[in-house]
Design brief:
Blueprint (H helix, E strand, L loop, with lengths): L11 H9 L2 H11 L5 H8 L3 H13 L3 E7 L4 E6 L1 H4 L2 H15 L6 E5 L24 E5 L8 E2 L10
Antiparallel strand pairs: 1-2, 3-4, 4-5
C-alpha cells in the first residue's frame, strides 16, 4: 500500500514526486515557464485558492526551484521566478504536454513550444526539431496550437514588473 509520503525510499522519482507531484505544483511550474511571475497572475490563470498558491510557492522557493524577489517596496510586492533547477523541469513539462497532446487532445495541441531563435518545434527533450539545438527554458517561445481557443501565433508573456 502506498503511504502518505515517500520517506525512506531510495528513489529519485519518489523524491521528485514529493516536491513536484502535486497537480497545482506542476501547473505553477508550467505557468512560470510561460513567463508568469506574479502571485495574482498565477491565481488568475489557475483559479487556485490563495492559501494553496502561497503554500505551493513557498514549497518551491524552499526547495530552490523558484526564487522570491521583491519588485516593489511600497506596498511590498514580490515575484516568483524559476531558478536554474526550476528551468531544468522544462523537459518534464514538455514530455507531459506531448503525452497529453497525443492521448488527450482530440483537436491537437493547445500550446506548442518553439525555439525562439529559429521557430522550430521542440521535442519533449527540449531539442529543436529544426536546428538540432538543445534549448533552455529562456529560449522557448510558446505558440497557440490547433487545439487552442486563441488565434494562431505566439502567446504573449505576462508583463514583467518594473524595478522599484
Amino acid at each position: 500500500m502506498l503511504g502518505k509520503d515517500y520517506a525512506g525510499q531510495n528513489c529519485s522519482v519518489a523524491r521528485s514526486l514529493e516536491l513536484v507531484g502535486e497537480r497545482w505544483t506542476l501547473l505553477i511550474i508550467r505557468d512560470a515557464l510561460l513567463g508568469v511571475t506574479r502571485f495574482e497572475h498565477f491565481q488568475d490563470r489557475l483559479k487556485i485558492a490563495p492559501n494553496i498558491l502561497s503554500k505551493r510557492l513557498r514549497t518551491l522557493v524552499d526547495a530552490g526551484v523558484m526564487e522570491r524577489r521583491r519588485y516593489q517596496e511600497r506596498p511590498e510586492r514580490h515575484e516568483y521566478a524559476l531558478t536554474h533547477a526550476g528551468k531544468e523541469l522544462l523537459p518534464v513539462v514538455l514530455s507531459l504536454a506531448r503525452w497529453g497532446d497525443a492521448h488527450l487532445a482530440p483537436n491537437g495541441p493547445p500550446v506548442v513550444a518553439r525555439h525562439a531563435a529559429c521557430g522550430g518545434r521542440l521535442e519533449a527533450t527540449g531539442r529543436c526539431e529544426t536546428c538540432g539545438a538543445t534549448i533552455g527554458a529562456d529560449d522557448v517561445e510558446w505558440h497557440a496550437g490547433p487545439g487552442s481557443s486563441r488565434p494562431p501565433g505566439p502567446i504573449p508573456r505576462p508583463p514583467t514588473p518594473a524595478p522599484s
